[in-house]
Amino acid sequence: MRIALIGAGGQLGTALMARLEEEVLPLGSRDLDIADPEQVQRVIPELRAELVINTAAYNFVDKAEDEAERARAVNETGPKLLAETCARLDIPLVHIGTDYVYGGAHPHPHPRPYVETDPATPSSVYSRSKLAGEQAVIAHCPKHYVLRTCGLYGRAVSAGKGNFVQTMLRLGRERGAVSVVDDQWCTPTFATDLAGAIADLITTGKYGLYHATNSGSTTWCGFAREIFRLQGMAVPVTPITTAQFKAKAARPSYSVLDCAKLTNVLGRQLRSWHDALAEYLATT
Ligand SMILES: NC(=O)c1ccc[n+]([C@@H]2O[C@H](COP(=O)([O-])OP(=O)(O)OC[C@H]3O[C@@H](n4cnc5c(N)ncnc54)[C@H](OP(=O)(O)O)[C@@H]3O)[C@@H](O)[C@H]2O)c1
């Protein structure tokens, strides 16, 4: 199978390049700007791919509040163009969504992980643009695999914006102590594990919307503590609240995803976030 991989230099793109055994046609933003209709409509058919994977996105959550137009172009217009083009070519499209579509108050008094059918409640420019993108893919490309993931980290060929693990290690070295938000629950996810899930899912023909993260959950503060523990770094981590951190964009207080649907289709669940993090740190 010939696979066009968009965003090949990003975290997930780099992991997919390492994982996919098929013929992969890697595309960076210089090869294809997904927000440009002329480029999408010309380049995608020329590739003669049998499947397209879109890992490209505008991922600057706070900056998006001031750059809404750019965020929407990459996160909403781009996926819509790709979906329309893949539908015309009658080929499947893999697209990646985010846990941040669950931004509002949790609908249950005692939060439980979100399932795919729970109503989305995005609360920022970034999350609204990502939700619109996945909805466009679902609406326009019948053969879609949309995977919502969370707290992604991995190696990336392109510079990109870095990830939480790299940021914590840098701040730990520079400052010797860090303060990290302790009232936002999520599941850190290793790009290598998500790439493995995608590689398996595309062989099933079971199109649809999936939640796809490592197992378990923690807060960003818990994640930071585990990073330093595994690295053997004695860096004190002070828990703070979302209000104290004062980020520009609103973030969910709880966005843990229930991945049972994906588990059923793949016949396995992704390993715990602890084990995945340990491997990432040991191999970076
Ligand atoms: N990072 C997270 O914590 C997180 C959480 C939930 C969901 N996700 C989603 O997971 C997916 C993968 O994320 P990631 O962390 O791997 O992303 P990443 O490392 O930031 O990489 C994004 C890639 O998108 C490419 N790109 C940006 N604008 C483009 C455009 N207009 N046209 C074509 N390519 C463009 C960039 O290419 P160049 O390098 O060539 O500029 C970059 O390689 C994204 O859909 C993201 O929204 C991420």
Averaged pLDDT: 96
CATH architecture, please?
3-Layer(aba) Sandwich
Tell me the count of domains.
1
The CATH class is identified as Alpha Beta
**Residues in β-strands, percent:** 15-25%
What small molecules accompany the polymer chains? NADP nicotinamide-adenine-dinucleotide phosphate
Looking at CATH, the homologous superfamily is NAD(P)-binding Rossmann-like Domain
Task: Please render the helix and strand layout as text.
Blueprint: E1 2-6, H1 11-19, E2 23-27, H2 37-47, E3 51-54, H3 68-89, E4 93-98, H4 125-140, E5 144-149, E6 152-153, H5 164-175, E7 178-181, E8 185-186, E9 189-190, H6 191-201, E10 208-211, E11 218-219, H7 220-231, E12 237-240, H8 242-245, H9 260-266, H10 273-283
Parallel strand pairs: 1-2, 1-3, 3-4, 4-5, 5-10, 6-9, 7-12
Antiparallel strand pairs: 8-11
The chain binds NADP nicotinamide-adenine-dinucleotide phosphate (NAP).
NADP nicotinamide-adenine-dinucleotide phosphate binds at residues 6-7, 9-13, 28-29, 32-35, 55-59, 74, 78, 96, 98, 130, 149-152, 156, 158, 160-161.
Describe the structure.
There is one protein chain. The protein has 284 residues and is of the alpha/beta class. It has a single domain, classed as 3-Layer(aba) Sandwich (Rossmann fold). It has ten helices and twelve strands. The longest helix has 22 residues, at 68-89. It is globular. The two termini are 30 Å apart. The model has no long low-confidence stretch (mean pLDDT 96). Bound molecules: NADP nicotinamide-adenine-dinucleotide phosphate. NADP nicotinamide-adenine-dinucleotide phosphate (NAP) binds at residues 6-7, 9-13, 28-29, 32-35, 55-59, 74, 78, 96, 98, 130, 149-152, 156, 158, 160-161.
